[in-house]
Amino acid sequence: MDGDLPAGMDRIVLVANTHRVAPGLLSWPAWSELQQGPVYAADPHHPQLPFLEMADVTVEVLSADDGPQGLRVGYLAGGGDMSQTALAHLFREKARGGQAVWLASPGGDPDFVRALGDLVAREGGVEMEVVYGSYDMAGARLLDLVSTMDRLRSAGGCPWDAEQTHASLAPYLVEETYEALEAIETGDLAALRDELGDVLLQVVFHARVAQEREDETGWTIDDVAARIVEKLVRRHPHVFGDVRVAGSAEVVANWEDIKAAERGDDAGPFDHVPLGQPALALAAALQRKAEKAGVSAALDPSSTSPDTFGPRMWQLVAECRAAGLDPEAELRAVARTFRDQAQPTDA
Q1: How far apart are CA 2 and CA 59, in angstroms?
Q2: How do 59-61 and 39-41 pair as beta strands?
Q3: In 3-state terms, what secondary structure has residue 102?
Q4: How far, in Å, are 81, 102, 120, 121, 241 from residue 124 at the CA level?
């Protein structure tokens, strides 16, 4: 506060906020500084302005065009933006003899802040404080992805994105999933981050396509998130309920029991095994389901010939699983080794 400042000292407050939080939802320290004022900003369309007006907080919008003329681009160490330097000078003048509050744009106004910091460091006599009115919580950047997809699919967006359907996007979902799998297999964690982003894009893309349906079959990305949250809570009663477990084996057993109850008594053990997956993974999944259902995973000798390749591969899958290995991953590893080691023969 002004009365607490040392003699001859001015005070500058920078109020930071994010567009990923609903406008008007600011911390009490931020509201206190804004109500004390005076408040300045550079964006005449700042999303907080209507809510500050409702609270009788006046905000003066400053323009770099009104700042000191003749400022050189090289005024800042390492170079800088002349307009932001001029804006920093203008705001600094507003704080002389007291206090001034800067309402930062959701992007943080980094060039302006650097220019202001350089100016204050040169002049001295200023107390600067950053107050966080709002900040991003974990997962907040997902809102940016939803917003970006909305822009791409809306009028004036991308023609290609606007033409896509669930069916046309299906190959990309498979492709991106396998690229993420390859990143895991090679241990490239940086690539995995990027590939998971591509997979996440497919989820958001499909949700946006579904959202555009105007009948009861439509749903949104929030519906997708809500359903998976409900499922996780329902299938983890040892975390969200009063069920006690002795270890992960009981967790898996409870999970399967809950799934069976969700499917109903009429559901067979193989009803939810996707037949479109790769053959080795499909065989392993069917064998795993058979064991859990108490069904023999052995093939009927009368229905197949033991000399054909299919039954032999089925048995290899069983042996691989018995050794605690993933047959799909094992064969992929060998294939990758061959790719890396094989040399072209001379013509």
Answers
A1: 19
A2: parallel
A3: strand
A4: 22, 18, 5, 6, 58
Q: What is the pLDDT of residues 79-98, one digit of tens each?
A: 445 688 889 999 999 999 89
State the architecture of 2-132 in CATH terms: 3-Layer(aba) Sandwich (3.40)
Please state, in angstroms and rounded to a whole number, the distance separating the CA atoms of residues 211 and 220: 5
Q: How many residues belong to the chain?
A: 347
Domain with CATH 3.40.1010 in the chain: 2-132
Tokens of 22: 């609903």
- At 95-115, the pLDDT tens digits run 998 999 999 998 899 999 999
Whole-prediction pTM: 0.74
* Largest distance between two CA atoms of the chain: 99
| DSSP string for residues in 130-161 | EEES--PPTTTHHHHHHHHHHHHHSTTS-HHH
C-alpha 93/C-alpha 68 separation (Å) is: 10
Q: What torsion, rounded to 10 degrees, do the Cα atoms 311, 313, 318, 322 define?
A: 150
Q: Where are the extended beta strands (E) located within 186-281?
A: none
Q: What amino acid occupies position 5?
A: L
